[in-house]
Amino acid sequence: MHNFFEFSALISAFSWAISGAILKTIKIKNVLSFPFYEAIFSLFLLSVFVTFFYSWSSVFSQNFNSLILFAIGTGIGCVGFISYVGAIKKISIGIVFTVSASCNLLMISLLDYFLNSIIYNWLVLFGALLILISIFILNFEFISKSKQFVENFRGIFYGIIAGLLWGVATYLNDLALEGARFIDAALVRAIVWVILPAMITLVIRKKFDFIFSNKPYLIKIIFAAILATSSTLLWFISLNYTTGSLSVIFGNTSPIFALIIGYLFLKEKISIYQLFAIFVSLVGISLVIIFR
Fold this sequence. Notes:
Elements: H1 2-6, H2 8-23, H3 33-53, H4 64-90, H5 93-115, H6 122-138, H7 140-145, H8 148-151, H9 153-176, H10 182-203, H11 215-241, H12 244-251, H13 254-265, H14 272-291
Helix pairs in contact: 2-11, 2-12, 2-13, 3-10, 3-11, 4-9, 4-10, 5-6, 5-9, 5-12, 6-14, 10-11
């Protein structure tokens, strides 16, 4: 069971990839609509989960400092997501994911090394490098054809900021889990992700997409929210049982899963570069699992 908890970030990446594949079929004008609705549905699902499997009297009864760290960490993660959205509006999503994933792993690895004194076997680091290389290979065709890679430094900057913020958020959440439970983390995350997108939407004077009038979209959003909630729970469970660096390494496999899911269910084609990326990623994952 302990091994399952360690690898839950890998399952989390798979769940997140399926959620993303579903969202790709939905046309949304305000990009903050999904995190807002997802957080609302997530809060409802978590409330049901606590009602049947926990006691409400024990919720948020943990270390108060840990709850504050959760709020700060998930808030930083939300800002990172907004920066990520800003980046993909400027340049290719392939470039953004390559940059943000690399910066995410770099930041959490540095924080683990200098603040937690965690040193990994070189084969684990090599496996992590292979996963990052696989992400680059996965997006090679987009990167090589994009003139914006050189021209639009603002988009690259936003991608870097997103990755660095996600790394800091992972470290803070990992630290907070030393004094609280994963269910507290998930609840705080849901609450923060309801409040922040709502505040930002009010500030920029936009409206959320009204999905309730479109039944097919509503069903897809609910299903995607269930998967995203499961992904969040598994992510925090992983952080609770392993280091932030390992969780990020496994979490960065989500584009590989997204590629496979897109091929199987969305009838998207896979190029020779992408097949090679899948192979490289699987080798990297195997090294991390064996020598972690």
